[in-house]
Amino acid sequence: MGKTPRRWFAVLVAVLAAAAGAVVVLAGPQPAGAATAFVQRCGIRFCLNGKPFYFAGTNTYDVFTYGSGSGDTETQYMDKAKIDAHLANLAADNVTVLRLWMFSHESWHGFETAKGVYNEQQFAQFDYVIESARAHNIRLIPVFENYWEAYGGIDTRLQWEGLSGGQPARGQFFNKQKCPGCFTSYKNYVSYALNRTNHYSGVKYKDDPTIMAWELMNEPRYENQTPNENTSGTTLRAWVDEMGAFVKGIDPNHLLGTGLEGHESRYGFGGDEGNPFVHIHQSPYVDFTSAHPYPTESWANLGIAQTRTLIRAWITDSHDLVGKPFFMGEFNVHNVDRSAWFTALFADFEAAGGDGSAFWWYAATNVDGKFGVLKGAPELAAFRAHSANMIAKSGGVLPSVSVSPSASPSVSPSVSPSASRSPGACRVRYELSDWGSSFNANVTITNNGTSAVNGWSLVWSFPGNQTINSIWNARATQAGRQVTATNESWSASIPAGGSVNFGLNGNSTTGTNGVPAAFTLNGTTCGTA
């Protein structure tokens, strides 16, 4: 199906309400059988293409800074090779969802460097991040703004309105009487971002299923403002309702989260900070709950068993009281055996019915000795197993990320699907992102047979002068133009009617790229789709 009836209803309500001077669009679960490219909410679960969607992800908050931040947009300001290499590493470690920042008010790599001044070069770089994520079959959760001072945050928006920031003064940001301009500048930025057209794909952000969800803010709170606000959450809930309605009025496609930490005295984790977990997440515009456990911090001082109890409390409240999926949007430990903690927490998270996780954080370079996780870290073995289990709970197949074929790219890279369709025991979809002298390909193998394929080898010939640099979720050998891709241990089985996916990056000669004409799987010619 294309657009679901609910989506059309949401758009109609938004249009009619806007004409009346107010936008009212209610978030809600989608029918269990709805088929769409966008991740949706089906009751207390995430769903995709009418099936449950469980995921294991990570945070790499600083992807938007990869590059010099000056000079030519395409060759200097952004470092495409670093972005692609990092996304390739994430894909190789089974990351399926990436949470990342889409905010900064700094002059270097700033998105909004002054009030209402949007940096085209920076948004162009985020365009590329989206394209690379799609090519590596990773979905994104961009965050609109930061409560904390990093990259300026809401302190900067307060300064634009002549108000002071800092903790707890920055709570003024959420009070419309104290800072009406804060509401306006936030909405203007969100509107600009949602309506932006990606200059590579020609697809607006609000229409791109590569984005799984938006988050309103990183860790918002309304702390120590009035005697009862720490526990009532009245002001923050009003802000979430207003901004959630605003986002949904522009973009009914995507899920929306708050970015909350989940601190609350009744959980025995942190204190009451004006952001009660249940009440805030009961907003009709919010599609899932979130929490950020850091159990080994000195103020928390939780052991593994206590942390499991804490996470189960969030999951239970999310499912039973709020009625929405639970996303553990950040977490990590330090000065302990991280592999042991990851193994224990992931196993219990899966058993308790947690819907999605994202550890903090998968770094490109060793910039954080406390929480940074680099490629090759031993704890990633536990994460890969967790991701495999979450994929298995989703039906054993990770659907490919794709944009509408009606969206025509305006600037390379371009996405080229296979040109023909034919039946057979197997089917291969080869999606090409062509940058001229380099390219990415996303390859999906579907088993049309009646029995599982256990161990596979896919052979094809490139149409021109292409050489593979890296490959993820498979291994490859190349002899001239001919390539043989074989499974990794975790991708060896293709169930009857199921699919596996892998991707690759390579060099090429401009004008020679194209979709290979034929593929054979274990010696059998496959159809293309």
Please tag this protein with its features.
10-stranded mixed β-sheet, 6-stranded parallel β-sheet, 25 strands, alpha/beta, 529 residues, 12 helices
Tell me what the structure shows:
It is built from 12 helices and 25 strands. It has 529 residues and is of the alpha/beta class. Strands 14, 15, 16, 18, 19, 20, 21, 23, 24 and 25 form a 10-stranded mixed sheet that branches. Strands 8-5-4-13-12-11 form a 6-stranded parallel sheet. The chain has a 3-stranded antiparallel sheet with strand order 1-2-3, with no helix packed on it. The longest helix is centred in the middle third of the chain and has 19 residues, at 304-322.
Quote the distance from N terminus to C terminus: 17 Å
Question: How big a fraction of the residues is strand?
Answer: 15-25%
- Percent helix: 25-40%
Number of strands: 25
